[in-house]
Amino acid sequence: xxxxxxxxxxxxxxxxxxxxxxxxxxxxxxxxxxxxxxxxxxxxxxxxxxxxxxxxxxxxxxxxxxxxxxxxxxxxxxxxxxxxxxxxxxxxxxxxxxxxxxxxxxxxxxxxxxxxxxxxxxxxxxxxxxxxxxxxxxxxxxxxxxxxxxxxxxxxxxxxxxxxxxxxxxxxxxxxxxxxxxxxxxxxxxxxxxxxxxxxxxxxxxxxxxxxxxxxxxxxxxxxxxxxxxxxxxxxxxxxxxxxxxxxxxxxxxxxxxxxxxxxxxxxxxxxxxxxxxxxxxxxxxxxxxxxxxxxxxxxxxxxxxxxxxxxxxxxxxxxxxxxxxxxxxxxxxxxxxxxxxxxxxxxxxxxxxxxxxxxxxxxxxxxxxxxxxxxxxxxxxxxxxxxxxxxxxxxxxxxxxxxxxxxxxxxxxxxxxxxxxxxxxxxxxxxxxxxxxxxxxxxxxxxxxxx
Length: 452
Description:
CATH superfamily of the largest domain: P-loop containing nucleotide triphosphate hydrolases
Largest sheet: 9 strands, mixed
Strand order of the largest sheet: 9-8-10-11-7-12-13-14-15
Structural class: alpha/beta
Radius of gyration: 26 Å
Number of domains: 3
CATH topology of the largest domain: Rossmann fold
Mean pLDDT: 86
Strand content: 15-25%
Distance between the termini: 69 Å
Number of helices: 13
Order of helices and strands: HHHHEEEHEEEHHEHEEHEHEHHEEEEH
């Protein structure tokens, strides 16, 4: 036998030993933990139940080691036993093989192409392939189903009849998974972390997303109750900017948020937002009924006496009720939209409006958008391809036939950071912003304030 063959034999032996230990520990938890919890006199909290589970696993590991010795097998190293026990705990109380990645604050995005092909993107923009998050495709599928069951009181199916799953994880991360739709019919998922559940425009300035002029301009937009659409590509920071702008609202303003899956979290800090009702769309149940769309939620939200309505992401016919909300007295409302530029946002809105039950013609859609959206704020990556920045801001002026007319009041410079365009902002709008505390001299510096 060659050295390589011996190495492979030992590796297979260790793998079989780990599998036996994992199975033993899982069985011990399933059979012993319920009784331990019932006998325990302490308050039944998640933390206490995890402590009881750790006690069960310690005893089960010791018993397993004795059985392995009696069978004449070599024991696993102590650190491997500890790792397997922690993994079993994570399966029951955490997020399984995903837990270690989510515990790393530098991980921003997790892409699971299959159970054993996992890639992450870090906050600094770098990428890497990491260890498998499950032992098999079935284990990955079961893990995602478990997460779906924990994530909400609402039914969240994940099977051949409902092969797509969109939900928020306990830590606020956004998970999207598909089953049987990829090459080979395997399960795949992506997880996006919102690292800044509470943030401010000042914090975004310090991180390089804004300069001081943009910080004060966006603050004035909120305080002047202008309706704002935030655009950009996937993962560019639209939701983070929306949260930062929302932090400029009066804490006692009545806010209704509409989302496909909860991620805004505006009500988690009552000092910032005390009066928030967060609504989430609902998919069909197993009988094929019970769906509630974002468009319907916007209509219902208007009956809940909001001062402002916020749509986490416009992605379909909810654009029409959202524009109606913005033009019917709910000034200061906001939404996000996937778009590659601030100008193309109007084309995206028109295409979504065409999907609505109203079937508005292009001219009516342009008029509706022009009467409701005041500003479009666009995010992009700077020339370094890493830093996320505000790149463009457009003021909506009017509609001309089927076209929305707008002025680009901040346009991207050579480094793709937004610079003010002298004289582009209408005088009446500037007066509104000045009344809200904006200094017009901040628009007089064509290179902006990025170097300040």
